[in-house]
Design a protein that fits this description.
alpha+beta, 5 helices, globular
Length: about 220
Amino acid sequence: MSTIARGPRILKGALVSIDRDTSVPSVIAFQYNPATVKRTLKPVMSGGEGDRAQAVRLNSAPQETISIEVELDATDGLETADATTLSVGLHPQIAALELLAYPPTSRVMSNARLLNAGVIEISPMLAPRLLFVWGAKRVQPVQITSYSISEEEFDVNLNPIRATISLELRVLTYSDVSTSNPDYHQFLAYQQGLESLTGDVSAQRAADRRAIARDGDDILNQ
């Protein structure tokens, strides 16, 4: 009897959009995990300039940006004759990512009706909460600062069938939002996770040092 070799099940990275009114999440899982996730952290500090006696202080969490490229390919859908892929190619997947940067049309039309009815001041629309999910250890609240798309191949109806979307994300920390905002607690939990990881590493290093010391004693006593 033949057996099928199974590789490890790989988690999919994702962007999760959460409606602020209903708290209903919309998950946009990456078709393929980006090969590279570029992260840039800029510490927010004061002091230490000009006056050597002045201590350097950390004013807040660092400003972090994340750069990723999301690759989309309609090959599988075309090979299996998926009706949606045959009809519109990658348009639905591209639209799902693109709409993260748009206010919903329902709100746009509602505000237009209010303006036509004589309402003087219309509050700006709140963007949905957005989480960047990259495994269990990295779930960060973010906002999109840049979105660019390269559509690379098309079907006979000019529907895109291969595309690369470049996203620049700014991480929202507890320094950016109020304590009543869920993102405040989301980032706090993320940082606490980082702190627990360093604790695990320190504990493992201490255990390794104890094991090395025991091995050394055993060799000397032989």
